[in-house]
Amino acid sequence: MRILGIGDYLDLGDMYLRLAANGHEVRVHVADPAYHGVMAGMVRRVADWRAELPWVGAVGKDGLILYEGAGHGQEQDALRQAGHQVIGGCAWGDRLEGDRAFGQEIMRAAGMRTATVQEFSDFTAAMAFIQARPRRYVCKHNGHHLPSTRNFVGALDDGSDVAQLLRGYTRTWPAEVPVSFVLMDHLAGIETGVGAYFNGEAFVGPACLDWEHKRFFPGDLGELTGEMGTVVTYEGGARLFAETLAPLAPRMRAAGYRGYINLNCIINEDGVWPLEYTCRFGYPGFAILDALQPGGWDEVLGAMLGRSDGFAAAPGYAVGVVLTTPPFPYAGDGSCHAAGLPINIRGTLTAAQRAHLHYAEVALDDTGALVTSGASGYVLVATGLGPDIVTAQCAAYGLLDRVKVPNARWRVDIGDRLRDGDLARLARIGYGAGAAMPSPHKARR
């Protein structure tokens, strides 16, 4: 195939490397100049993706355009109308992810029960709402332009901590940034994601279950980073999928959606409470799913293009851990250099072990050595597989311990809470992953 990747930061770099290694032609466009050096010497970067459309279109059904992020749905729809094969999302998917109130409407229309969500475009009005209706809240911003570090999960039962945050925003919020956010009732339970691939007409392959670890530090302390690591399985997701994503298929078909979609939920003894959609590949989720897809991205992309009804999925669990350097989780401002740090591996890795290192902001320097690149310090994801979480943890952390990067850091508890009780609780509720429970001892680090 000929594959043209389009994104801001080269988020799918690891996928491109694997596709190129399997003989596919790959070209990528990176919009943000701070990330032009990512995967230098590894992947071919092009300055103008539109100039590459004849190249990708010349091979007909063997040409594919991959979009990495949300926010370009109208572009994708136009390219499909022009006859190109596009995997990523669509304009409707952009709204589903970026407009949280709209997302909640779609959930309710699909028969899902949702918690109370109130949308605001004014901080003072939100503060008055909290005063009139005191309870614990979560504040999440709409759109695709703000980092996840802006979101806030309140801890106080009267919502006063969220109100104080909003009061501060009335003084410090940048004038050029639109104010658009929601207040959601906080829900106690087990945060669980369900995801699947859609081929434009129907879902293909099994659905996955995932358990993200969004906070920067172990013990769920620190900033909301997006994800520092995740546990994923392709087993046991049928019930949650049937109750949540499956009813969306007619709307997705009508909208021309083709790509990966994920729904994050809270599950407790009262049922399933859907929170928000991700209408694109997830990061680091896509790399961790790769570890459970023995046929590789060739097979998965082929299924999304309608060439087959599904793809092979490995049993058990994959644990993925993100390795970062400063300035992560913040964007670089030049004072903290994320690029140029050497990446070394202790000892010799087998081909199978190397396949579990998923590179992100890296490049080859003029000597051919692997170094960090980009501006955020998001270096790589190490994955491990196993029939239970403990085995997968040991494999991921054992591999990560052999990667040597100056100032590297990662969470050391990815999967612990799930292993030590949440998985058993999900099984009691009726949403268990179906695989054998891990032993209660701690995984070796």
* CATH architecture term of the domain at 2-92: 3-Layer(aba) Sandwich
Number of DSSP-assigned strands: 21
User: Which parts are unreliable, with pLDDT below 50 for 5 consecutive residues or more?
Assistant: 435-445
CATH class membership of the domain at 2-92: Alpha Beta
Give the helix/strand class: alpha+beta
Strand content: 25-35%
Q: How would you sum up the major sheet?
A: 8 strands, antiparallel
CATH fold-level topology of the domain at 2-92: Rossmann fold
Total helical elements: 14
Question: Which secondary structure elements does this structure contain, and how are they paired or packed?
Answer:
Layout: E1 2-7, H1 13-21, E2 25-30, E3 44-45, H2 53-57, E4 63-67, H3 73-81, E5 86-87, H4 91-98, H5 100-109, E6 117-120, H6 123-132, E7 137-141, E8 152-153, H7 160-172, E9 181-185, E10 190-198, E11 203-217, E12 221-233, H8 238-243, H9 249-255, E13 259-268, E14 271-278, H10 285-290, H11 296-304, E15 317-324, E16 344-345, H12 351-354, E17 357-359, E18 362-364, E19 370-372, E20 378-386, H13 389-400, E21 403-404, H14 416-429
Parallel strand pairs: 1-2, 1-4, 2-3, 4-5
Antiparallel strand pairs: 6-9, 7-8, 7-9, 10-11, 10-13, 11-12, 12-15, 13-14, 15-20, 16-21, 17-20, 18-19
